[in-house]
Amino acid sequence: MLPTGNGDFVPDPRFQILDNDGLACPGEIIGPNDIYVNKQSPVNTTPTPNRELSDSQYKTTHVTYKGPKGETAVVDKVLLMSDTNENLCIKFLFRHTRRPEVGDKFSSRHEQKDVCGTIVQQEDFPFSEHGICPVLIMNPHGYPRS
Q: What is the topology classification, in CATH, of domain 2-95?
């Protein structure tokens, strides 16, 4: 919450993608400096058995997205797991959508790799007698023989 001049508080826009559990959900669009894990860490980390910590003994340690300025990403997967000591581990997989450039590598699910050799304007593409032009032209030698 951010304070306003008249004593009210408005929600911080960096927290807008968080769900009720304090984690970003899959499918959320995330930008630079957005918080995707709302986390609290104890100030004193030395082990003390059977002692409850009060709220003042925690510090906020938010995890923020550190992507390039002006680019957004999509939260693709969120994985929650714990180790043998019952420590919680959270993994995020982000997906970036970018415009292809000359020299970019692509691969299929069958490990067929290809490199973008050239980018041609729409008006320079070949077209049929009905005016339909392809979106993508691939090298036929890139396909396996059956």
A: OB fold (Dihydrolipoamide Acetyltransferase, E2P) (2.40.50)
